[in-house]
Design goal:
Layout (H helix, E strand, L loop, with lengths): L1 E5 L2 E5 L9 H6 L13 E3 H5 L7 H23 L10 H12 L4 H8 L3 H4 L1 H14 L7 E5 L5 E6 L2 E5 L9 H7 L3 H4 L7 H13 L10 H18 L5 H5 L3 H9 L1 H10 L8 H8 L16 H16 L5 H6 L3 H8 L4
Parallel strand pairs: 3-4, 4-6
Antiparallel strand pairs: 1-2, 2-5, 5-6
Helix pairs in contact: 7-10, 10-11, 11-15, 11-16, 11-18, 14-16, 16-18
């Protein structure tokens, strides 16, 4: 999952559905959110934008501005990148963009796959947000908009807004579309509806608790940050499959668990923990089909997996630390020391 920060906007793009998770782990993160009163409303923006007619452009554009406000600006400028709606060229630019995709039956495909969005997706999203509110009662739960991203971004987060690019979650029955766009097999495996709550929470957490490379930016810093984000996913989605939260296949998750000590020993023996080499960092926390320094059947982001194990050990061995305190702790060396991690 590639996270891109653009101004104050957080994007998830590229962004496996083997249901493998531990009941013990689910119990560890189980909390009672039944008293949290939270109902989300989803605005189906993609349905409205595909109604656009250039011969009535002034009417439609004015309506979009009034109805969708900041999200409409975000959509134009940073999702589909055709520029501001006040520009003279905008009506024809939007028309050209839509006319490229309408003949490919994109509106019909989105409608067919997400006709029951409210019934199928909203309960899981609401549950995740309730957990977020449980841990961070002061945080604002965002409004949700669905959109067509031109196969670019899965989730966008800006202040009190989150958007879901439905075209990035069309599922196995539409993998031929992703083949034409150019996505690889490991990327396609995440493009399922079940990934939506995971991607929403990941993007929201990164927006509220961003990585700060200006403080320190070595491999350990990146590993611990990734570990924190995975810990957040476990807290917010305790009943969701680990394979989904890790974006792993079942065999990749098994590999990571089996070779945890081997991964850690490699990082220590090669003296990589405090490396600031961007290439080395990407090898261990960057996305891909596997971790390149190991075999092609290895789990990707092996460093992130160890980062999570360190964070998990830190939380187990420091019962006075809550989730917000964990996320506010910027000293990765301090977390490693207090974790007493020993795989």
């Amino acid at each position: 999952m590639y996270i891109k920060k653009l101004s104050s906007v957080f994007f998830i793009s590229g962004l496996f559905v083997l249901f493998n998770f531990s009941c013990k782990e689910a119990d560890t993160f189980s909390v009672d959110v039944s008293d949290i009163d939270l109902k989300i409303k989803v605005t189906r923006f993609e349905k409205e934008i595909f109604k656009y007619k250039i011969d009535s452009s002034e009417f439609y554009i004015t309506n979009y501005k009034n109805k969708f406000g900041e999200f409409f600006k975000l959509y134009n400028n940073q999702i589909i990148e055709i520029g501001d709606a006040d520009e003279t060229y905008y009506p024809s630019a939007l028309n050209e963009f839509l006319n490229y995709w309408v003949p490919k039956e994109i509106p019909q495909i989105l409608e067919a796959e997400f006709k029951s969005f409210d019934f199928e997706q909203i309960p899981a999203i609401e549950s995740a947000y309730k957990h977020y509110k449980y841990y961070f009662p002061e945080k604002i739960i965002p409004e949700i908009y669905t959109y067509f991203s031109s196969f670019g971004y899965s989730v966008v987060t800006l202040d009190s807004i989150q958007g879901i690019g439905l075209d990035k979650y069309l599922g196995v029955q539409n993998f031929d579309i992703y083949d034409k766009v150019g996505y690889s097999q490991y990327q396609k495996s995440r493009m399922t509806k079940e990934m939506i709550p995971v991607d929403l929470i990941r993007s929201l957490a990164e927006s509220d608790f961003p990585y700060e490379p200006e403080l320190s930016d070595n491999l350990l810093d990146n590993m611990i940050y990734e570990g924190k984000m995975q810990y957040v996913l476990n807290c917010m989605l305790p009943k969701t499959a680990d394979t989904l939260k890790w974006r792993y296949t079942g065999s990749q998750l098994n590999w990571a668990n089996k070779h945890e000590k081997k991964i850690w020993n490699y990082l220590v023996e090669q003296k990589l923990l405090y490396s600031t080499d961007k290439t080395e960092i990407r090898k261990f926390v960057g996305d891909g089909p596997f971790t390149t320094v190991f075999t092609d059947v290895s789990a990707p982001r092996a460093g992130a997996f160890i980062g999570y194990k360190i964070v998990e050990s830190y939380m187990k061995n420091n019962s006075d630390i809550n989730l917000k305190t964990l996320l506010d702790e910027k000293n990765s060396g301090n977390i490693l020391s207090k974790a007493k991690y020993n795989p």
